[in-house]
Amino acid sequence: MKIERKIILSNAVYLVLILIIGGFAIQSLNSVSDRQRFLEIADDLNTSFLTMRLSEKNYFLFNDNAALRDIQNSISQTSDALDSVQGDIVPVIGDRSYQDLRSGLNDYSAAVNQAAVNNARDQQTADSIREKGRKLEATSNEITRLERTRVSEIITRSKWLLFLSFFAVLVAALIASRSFSRKILGPIKQIERLARSISAGNFKKIETPMPKDEFGQVINAINSMSEELEQREEELIQSKKLASIGVLVAGVAHELNNPVNNISMIAQTYDDMYEKLSVEQRIEFMRRIDQESERIKQIVNSLLDFARPKEPKLREIDINSLILKSLVLVQNTLNVSSIETRLDLAENLPPLFVDENQIQQVFVNLFLNAAQAMAIEGRLFVSSRLTEKEDVVEIAIRDTGKGIPPEYLPHVFDPFFSTKEEGGTGLGLSVSYSIIKNHDGHVRVESRPGIGTTFTIQLPVTQTRKETNEQTDHDH
Amino acid sequence: MSKRIMIIDDEKIVGDMAKISLEEEGYEVETFLNAEPALKRLRETQFDVVVTDLKMKGIDGLEVLRTVKKLYPDTKVIMITAFADLDVAIDAIKGDVFDFFPKPVRIKELKESISKAVAGTE
């Protein structure tokens, strides 16, 4: 159902409930006011009856003959009144009560009329009149009393009825608005969660049964957007891969072309100038050819490292010792360039499960990189620390070198990207990158030209690492 | 007076081998591993031919070409590169380069080209 229809429907339900309550209230009010009208009439009647009984007394006690005429007048007035209000009071007190009243009045009238014929004042007449009058008064009083009770009953009942129906409407409204808001807020929450996970890069979808309203359409649209984004991302990754393969191929071509050219030029010179070359020169030529071949071999090896990163052989190691061990390996280079090393290694770091050789290769790469970035008399800062969540060890390697221009930063981990003046295959950083990635870690770079560069390595602290490693070893 | 050749290439062997062959031909050869000292030397004295690598860290071959042409419009520039990249070659030709060699370089062809370049300066 569309949300619009839901809103219209729930409003219609409220409206009907309110109309029903209104109907009850009006009906109760009408009934009360009808009875009120009867009570007014009954008061009038009772007054008339009282007057009649008074005149009775005048007739019998004070021998006032005019009193009988007064009673007769009163009776005829009351009779007329009863006739005229018949329509009003019959529905209220019922036809039987009305007829009781009527016949009581008639009996009384007959008795009075009989007495009036001969102005009789004997005991029998008096008793008859008094008896009829009392009966009439009693009937009237009884009906009045009953009606008063009924009025008060009706008022009490309608009070309760109004209260109950108010309560019913309240409960209905609460239930309806709750289920209504659940129907609306539920999908909104779902959509919100989805949007958040999409923006975090998880291209999920809402799999729950689709509501058949506007939210269904929105969820459908978001789902297909998510799908589209996922596809686009894959395409992007593919094209990036292709681009980096392009860079890789161009890099290999360039890297290999130089030593190949060197060998070729030595060979040509050797051939052309053989006679004029000294024996020492010839030996020197061959040695240089060998060196260039070694260079080619290294390029090919690091290319293979890059293409097929070896599965890390994980062992429990103390990362600080590994940092120090790696520093020893590059100490000579650091000394030559008068580079001062400053360490800030956190104590009590948890052991890490890493491939010692591979991580050492990363450290050596980054140390040499730092050394090459600093001409002479630079400072190399190496720090290690446990992150606040205690799930990652962070190693930062900072130099005071010339820095990397911002436009090169995104490419430093690309294969064959190199800003070094000379040497370097341009593979060191990209190999380091893939080693850290293989350890489920991260490596990032920050640099400010003229101030220095910081490489930050994050390695996860995982207790279960050893087991998974044994598992993989087992699989091999 | 023997003709003077300058060779700039960050691969030392390129300069070394070219120097042996060219000195044999009677040229006076100076080699440099990068462009900064080479350009400094050029400001001191003129060379007849400058052979430069195109892709070098720091000042590259195209900038060497522009500087040489500004200082000495008569000096011929020969470009060599490990990148056999057509776009760069076209740029180089537009920039008034005398000849263009992709690596690996044939020394014989280089010698012929230099001899043509030198003949042009006479």
Q: Could you walk me through the main structural features you see in this protein, from its secondary elements to its overall organization?
A:
The complex is a heterodimer of chains A (476) and B (122). Chain A has 476 residues and is an alpha+beta fold. Chain A is built from 10 helices and 7 strands. Chain A has helices at 3-62, 66-93, 95-118, 123-199, 214-273, 279-307, 319-336, 356-373, 428-438, 465-475; strands at 315-317, 340-345, 352-354, 379-386, 392-399, 442-448, 452-460. Chain A has a 5-stranded mixed sheet, with helices on one face. Chain A has a two-stranded antiparallel ribbon with strand order 1-3. In chain A, strand 4 (379-386) and strand 5 (392-399) form a beta hairpin. Chain A is rod-shaped. With 122 residues, chain B is of the alpha/beta class. Chain B is 48% helix and 20% strand. Chain B contains 5 helices and 5 strands. A 5-stranded parallel sheet of chain B has the order 2-1-3-4-5, with helices on both faces. In chain B, helix 2 (35-44) runs parallel beside helix 3 (61-71). The longest helix of chain B is centred in the C-terminal third of the chain and has 15 residues, at 107-121. Classes of the chains: A alpha+beta (476), B alpha/beta (122). Chains A and B meet through helix 5 of A and helix 1 of B.
